[in-house]
Design a protein that fits this description.
Number of strands: 9
Mean pLDDT: 96
CATH class: Alpha Beta
Low-confidence stretches: none
CATH superfamily: Divalent-metal-dependent TIM barrel enzymes
Strand content: 5-15%
Radius of gyration: 17 Å
Number of helices: 10
Shape: globular
């Protein structure tokens, strides 16, 4: 595995981790901390202005590990194309896709799976033309009904097999750590892994969406998962993404950034 202990260039800070900050504050905070990459969510990019955001990020010498997020599918509508355009404007290495759950009033999970596949397929030519790889992110199965009906790396790998060039995976340790087939599916993903996200699973977890832990504070064996990911040849950034309404979002973002850096060097 790569040695992270003295290499800040391998760390990306997801804007969700320092939720109170604007894009400008995120950029300035990372520059001060010697962190060279960010993963912004669309809300703070749009609030700053997409073209201005691209100029701000480039002017600070930062790279963009990924852009969060497009979806929910089914749809290759104008919203999906706007997300691709925004990702291209800020120089994102990939655009993360969240699949979407069951259509309202439906119990047809297989039908939802087909709609997701068809929606991504319809968006793919536009993304290929824009030079923006699409990263399918499987979410924990408890999100299947309302957020994402793609819940395993096996399913995401199947979609990549079906859709071909321009589609890869976002591997988020929080969502996939429990999977008994994890090692085999990461190996199967290989060079299709476009971005890798980390946080920790707390016990107890009070809220599946908004009670995620700082790496090292929970039960996920992050070192083992990173070893699996890097064994595929992945040499990209490690994106710390923490949704934490009752803890980390209430702290001073500069302190959160400092602890992220410490954990990146010692735990991740």
């Amino acid at each position: 595995m790569r040695d992270l202990s003295n290499d800040r260039s391998l760390l990306a800070i997801n804007s969700a981790t320092v939720k109170p900050w604007t894009l400008e504050q995120l950029v300035e905070g990372c520059v001060r901390a010697g962190i060279t990459a960010i993963a912004p969510w669309r809300d703070i990019v749009q609030a700053h202005g997409v073209e201005k955001a691209g100029s701000l990020i480039r002017g600070a010498g930062l790279s963009v590990s990924c852009y969060c997020r497009a979806g929910l599918f089914p749809a290759a509508d104008e919203a999906g194309r706007r997300a691709v355009d925004e990702a291209a404007a800020i120089g994102a290495r990939s655009l993360v896709l969240i699949a979407g759950g069951l259509p309202k009033g439906s119990k047809d999970l297989a039908g939802a799976h087909r709609q997701v596949r068809d929606g991504i397929a319809a968006l793919l030519p536009y993304a290929l033309a824009a030079g923006v790889p699409l990263a399918i992110e499987p979410l924990h199965p408890m999100y299947a009904a309302d957020r994402a009906c793609v819940n395993t790396l096996a399913h995401a790998n199947d979609l990549c097999d079906q859709l071909g060039e321009g589609v890869g995976l976002a591997v988020d340790a929080y969502h996939v750590w429990w999977d008994p087939d994890l090692a085999a599916q990461i190996a199967r993903a290989g060079e299709r892994i476009l971005t890798y996200h980390v946080c920790d699973w707390l016990v107890p977890t009070r809220d599946l969406l908004l009670d995620r832990g700082m790496p090292g504070d929970g039960v996920i064996d992050l070192r083992s998962i990173r070893a699996m990911v890097e064994a595929t040849g992945y040499n990209g950034l490690i994106d710390i993404e923490i949704f934490s309404a009752q803890n980390w979002w209430k702290r001073e973002p500069a302190e959160v950034l400092r602890i992220c850096l410490e954990r990146h060097q010692t735990v991740v």
